[in-house]
Specification:
It is built from 4 helices and 4 strands, in the order E-H-E-H-H-E-E-H. It is of the alpha/beta class and 145 residues long. The protein has a domain of 97 residues: Rossmann fold (3-Layer(aba) Sandwich), CATH 3.40.50.
């Protein structure tokens, strides 16, 4: 008996430290897609911990990212993802044919106040909602009637 590979789309968010932007994006995607999309995040030079301002900004919208930890970017994570969203990782992100790549130009929340991080958080939410709409096309209302 063979196992069928998952048809669930997968997204990898990559930034340098995997402590701010990529964690915000992964938190939004996990929350908004509710398990319909596999979510990964990583960094080319992971920090020791997630940016506390990012944690606080997400907590304000009811999303808990306190259990997440910065992870190193691996070739395996890129290979296993359908979409790779980079956020300032430069040339450190490996490129594989057949993958969809997006580069989101976002301010780095490192060293910024929760006030500043809210703006980044909200920008990321809008981008994640657009990505979900592209990856999970909705079924027409009259389907099956």
């Amino acid at each position: 008996m063979s196992t069928k590979p998952s048809t669930k789309p997968s997204v990898l968010f990559v930034c340098v430290h995997n402590a701010g932007r990529s964690q915000l994006a992964a938190g939004w995607l996990s929350h908004l897609a509710a398990g319909a999309i596999e979510v990964r995040s990583a960094g080319s030079m992971p920090a020791e911990q997630i940016n506390p301002a990012a944690v606080a900004a997400m907590a304000e919208v009811g999303i808990d990212i306190t259990t997440q930890t910065p992870k190193i970017l691996t070739i395996e994570a890129v290979e296993a993802s359908d979409v790779v969203v980079t956020m300032g990782c430069g040339d450190a992100c490996p490129v594989f044919p057949g993958k969809r790549y997006e580069d989101w130009q976002l301010d780095d929340p490192a060293g910024q106040s929760v006030d500043a991080v809210r703006t980044i958080r909200d920008d990321i939410q809008t981008r994640v909602e657009k990505l979900i709409a592209e990856l999970l096309p909705t079924v027409p209302d009259d389907a099956g009637r």
